[in-house]
Amino acid sequence: MCGIAGFVRSAGMQPGDEALLRTMCDAIAHRGPDDDGRQILGTAALGMRRLSIIDVAGGHQPIHNETGDVSVVFNGEIYNYRQLRERLLKAGHKLSTRSDTETLVHLYEDDGDRLVDSLRGMYGFAIWDSKRQRLLLGRDRLGIKPLYYWEHHGGLSFGSELRSFLADPAFKPQLSEEAIALYLSFGYVPDPHCIFSGVRKLPPGHVLTWSRNEGVAVHRYWSPLRAEVNIEAPDATRELRRLLEEAVACHLESEVPLGAFLSGGIDSSTVVALMAKAMDRRVQTFSIGFEEPEYNEAPHAARVAAQIGTDHTELIVRPDADQLVEDVIVGFDEPFADSSALPTLLVSHLARERVTVALSGDGGDELFGGYTRYAEVSSMAPPVPLALRRVLRALALMRPPGAKGRAWMLNRASANRGRYASTVASPLSVLEGGLANGNVAKLRTSIEQLLDPWFDKFGSRDFATQMMLVDLETYLPGDILTKVDRMSMAVSLEARVPILDHHVVEFAMSLPSRLKLQGMTGKKILRDSISGLVPDSVLTKPKQGFAVPLSEWFRGPLRYRIEALSAPDAPVAQWVDGEAMRRIANEHLSGRREHAGLIWRLVVLNGWLRALSQSDLAGPQRVHDLLRRTIVVN
To answer: What distance lies between CA 334 and its chain's CA centroid?
Structure first.
């Protein structure tokens, strides 16, 4: 696991570029505290920070081919690198290290840009071909690892995090109004958009090429869309179990201590149970809980750990809520409003005390229909005719937000796409219950239209499967995987997600939704495949999110952050409607309505914009230090 950064210049390097490369890499030192490597290669500058996992002694980067004209910097892990090494050696290549990174340069020699087809893993990489004066960037199929790029006059810069661009004096950060609108809708900035104008995220499953003559080209090399297969449930159950066992086994490759997050839910328990089956020692597992019982899964996780037989560590925490919030806000290089980032940072810190790698259960909900929205939207009454939908919508918008019957009419006024959209995004306009001011709201006409480009791609499948596919391409990389990457990397911990092994994903997305959804319950096939592997209590326990007591905090230690939103110099004031913001704040503080999620979105944006204006986004190392002083163990 590493962070990478670098740039290419059409006209060649400039004075100070070596120092610039060092500064860009230092800005992401939290991603790789063990080693750093930098090299100027003609018109290209490649740099990295390394968290040493495989070939600890010999995996220094950049790594080159035998003739030195193909070079790579790499972030992530290639789980099938041993098989790739054997193939390359048989083909006559000479490998000088035992690292997974080195396989990339030789695969590039043989397969060119199609080298990604052979990779099984998580990655963001940059390959410089000095003969062709050509840069290749690649990102893994699901977007587990991040990769940004900035096309500028005379060249292109790239990096695992935006902090590397902020370290470049030539980069003038200008906020993207469209990205702000997207953030206010989703709570994150979805790929390929970026909070800064002129910067893009390389989407999952894509490669980018740059050359002086041809400029930038972005190509897709993988899609989760698969034709539905005709398969009986017993056969599908056996195949899924086999694929999960294989995926977890290959994710155990490591030369440093390795463990797992364990909440006691289906996904994390599946991963831990399969680890226990594959390993010759007890699995180290980690969980955290809060003092409030409704936000504490630790007792259940401890019972599951005891039944599986792991070496379990848990913390019941009473954090300094205000400091934890500040740490999380500056831990992201873009505004990010999933409040489960707060406990994710805490459990990552706990795990890092004992291990360098932690496996996580993320991905099971998107693959196997775990979110309640899949069953709920699929079971709703068919949409009424368009003319009637328009009447219902007009009547609904005549009522104030929160009025009785308003939500029902808006739901009936929506087609299936709109119903799904209302579960994953918030409206922008105040008239529809949003918070954006007029200038921002006009950038997007409806949350349904935000998602149309994704739904249009997946129209060949039933609607439940379409929703899962849209989540795989939006919510999963934009929210879930971003959260896990940034919060684990903030404390220099590598997080791995074996359920998102692309062989598992391809099989899961070929299955009919009837094998996943049973009435209002999801994950049927996953439950069947792990029956007898995990404790029965895991299969029957209701789904519980990784939540924190935000509502209570906003009425207590974080109340001043709500009040700060209305301050004359509040950065968020430029983007939101002041009257609407004060209304939801008053309703929440008085207890009349629950608005913790919306308020959190505004608090994060306000804090992030302030940190940006104060050049305080270089924060993860500070997070690591301060977190030690905020945890209280009971």
So the answer is: 12
Q: 408 Cβ partners below 8 Å, 6+ apart?
A: none
DSSP string, 138-171: EE-TT--S--EEEEETTEEEEESSTHHHHT-TT-
CB 32 within 8 A of CB 49: yes
Compute the half-sphere exposure of residue 56: CA atoms within 13 Å on the CB side of its CA: 10
- Nearest Cα to 481, choosing from 374, 344, 609? 344
Q: What pLDDT does 289 receive?
A: 86
Q: Rounded to whole angstroms, how far apart are CA atoms 510 and 502?
A: 12
Least confident segment among 285-289, 400-404, 452-456: 400-404
Residues 326-381: pLDDT tens digits? 999 999 999 999 999 999 999 999 999 999 999 999 999 999 999 999 999 988 76
Q: How far is CA 579 from CA 88, 395, 438, 574, in A?
A: 64, 23, 12, 13
Cβ burial of 35 (10 Å; 0-12, 13-18, 19+) is middle
Q: Are 8 and 43 in contact (CB under 8 A)?
A: yes
In this structure, are strands 134-139 and 494-496 parallel, antiparallel, or unpaired?
unpaired
Task: Give the pLDDT confidence of 370-387 residue by residue, as tens digits.
Answer: 999 999 998 876 777 777
CA distances from 495 to 66, 304, 334, 575 (A): 32, 21, 20, 34
- The 10s digit of each residue's pLDDT in 477-489 is 999 999 999 999 9
- DSSP 3-state of 264: coil
pLDDT at 175: 96
Separation of alpha carbons 563 and 275, rounded Å: 47
Band of residue 276 on the pLDDT scale cut at 50, 70, 90: very high
Q: Do residues 492 and 352 lie in contact, with contact meaning Cβ atoms separated by under 8 Å?
A: yes
Reading the block at residue 159, the tokens are: 């990096």
Q: Are strands 357-359 and 258-261 parallel, antiparallel or unpaired?
A: parallel
| Distance from C-alpha of 621 to C-alpha of 31, rounded to nearest angstrom | 10
H helix runs in 353-443, sequence order: 364-368, 372-379, 386-397, 406-412, 416-424, 438-441
Please confirm, yes or no, whether 2 is among the known catalytic residues.
yes
**Three-state secondary structure call for residue 376:** helix
Q: Give me the residue label for tokens 């996780």.
A: 301
Evaluate if residue 39 carries a pLDDT over 90: yes
Choosing from 2, 25, 194, 250, the catalytic residue is 2
Of the candidates 179, 44, 184, the one whose C-alpha atom is nearest the C-alpha of residue 602 is: 184
- Whether residue 599 is predicted with pLDDT greater than 90 in this model: the reply is yes
At 89, which helix (H) or strand (E)? helix 81-90
Going by their DSSP bridges, the two strands 2-9 and 35-41 should be labelled as unpaired
- What type of residue is 192? P
Q: What is the pTM of this model?
A: 0.94
Residue type at 235? Answer: D
